[in-house]
Amino acid sequence: MIEQFFSLYLKIFFMMTPFFVLSLFLTMSKNLTKPEKKQVILKLSIAVMVAGLVFLLFGKYIFSLFGITLDAFKIGAGTVLFLSALDMIRGGNDVENSEARGSDFSRNDFAVVPLAIPSVVGPGMIGILMVMGAEMSGPVDTVLVIFSLLAAVLSLAGVLFISNKLQHLMGKQGLEILPKITGLFVSAIGAQIIFSGIQGFFNL
Length: 204
Fold this sequence. Notes:
It is a single chain. The chain is mainly alpha-helical and 204 residues long. The chain contains nine helices and no strands. It has one domain (2-201). It has helices at residues 2-15, 18-28, 34-66, 70-90, 94-100, 111-120, 123-135, 139-161, 163-201. Helix 2 (18-28) packs parallel to helix 5 (94-100) and helix 2 (18-28) packs antiparallel against helix 9 (163-201). The longest helix has 39 residues, at 163-201. The chain starts with a helix and ends with a helix.
């Protein structure tokens, strides 16, 4: 069970793209005081946890409503996840664009949008949470996944709390490399979800 917990935890944590979010947070919070940064992190954590629970617990009802099979969703979600990972590996202008939009957000208004949604709770995380929710087979599985989600959210908050120290330790170049490394892991998870969906769809 411990091994399953860590497996779920790592999947969710990488889906949050923590190092990209770290870069984004450092850019958008550079003019904030320490108490304001803590407030942003608290708002972010609550928003991510609430949104994550919604997709985790009610995803299967969305499947039922639209007549989507789990295998079909796995293929679709895995594809989106893989494409998102390619964007992370190639690098993008999201951080720079967010900095340019900084004047559009007053102080810590960016905690929920765009930091929590869609930067943390993006298509990849939504997809994997809905898949996990649909695969939960009982209360033990449900509790295990919820605690994995909570642990991932707390880990992300911890990373952001020490963001200044990490920035000093890794430097700007290090922060640019880490999202690419995360992208490699995310692409592997996306490919695995696609193959799992194909296997179930064709009853292999």
